[in-house]
Design brief:
Elements: H1 3-20, H2 33-42, E1 50-54, H3 60-68, E2 74-79, H4 82-91, E3 97-101, H5 107-113, E4 119-124, H6 133-146, E5 147-157, H7 161-170, E6 174-178, E7 185-191, H8 192-198
Parallel strand pairs: 1-2, 1-4, 2-3, 4-5
Antiparallel strand pairs: 5-7, 6-7
Helix pairs in contact: 1-4, 2-3, 6-7
Length: about 200
Amino acid sequence: MSDSMNHKARPLTFLAGFLKHPREVGSVIPSSRSLIRRIVRHGDVSSARVVVELGPGTGVVTKQMLRHMRPDARLIALEINPLYIKTLQRDIQDPRFSIHAGPATEIQQALQTVGEHEVDLVVSGIPFSTLPKPEARRTLQRLNDRLSPDGRFVAYQFRSEVRKLGEPILGPATVRAGYWNFPPMRIFIWRRSDAVALA
């Protein structure tokens, strides 16, 4: 399939994935370019050696992060939707990229599979507002356990549930508006160094 055909088919693939697994998908359409640019900037993607993406969907954010990542970096995506996994495997042929077919709570296993222990940046589009609270807290605790000393966690969300769940574990979040996206999203940013400074 050509790149242009892939580009046209991607929103339909994303919608199909949403209809099959609405609880795990944050929107009915992929993220906008403007939102993605802000995710890349706030996550400081270019400085990260190990990046984990929770819920990459069809890979719209994934591809932009790979464009900005270091040559020696690696990106591990955790995805449970078989349709999205198939799309990612077909569309992304980058040696720095790998997929872990499992839930976000398996971040430790995903890192171990590629021989890593810590992560410099976690980016998440999974909707924490629809996850069962015990699962959401486990996810946040496990990613916090694996963040490097300068690690960052960036979550782009329609609702603010991730902030309520995340601040007791990760400390205060910085919030940036994302009204340029449809639906409007907010970007929640945590930095391990900020939490340590406040401790």
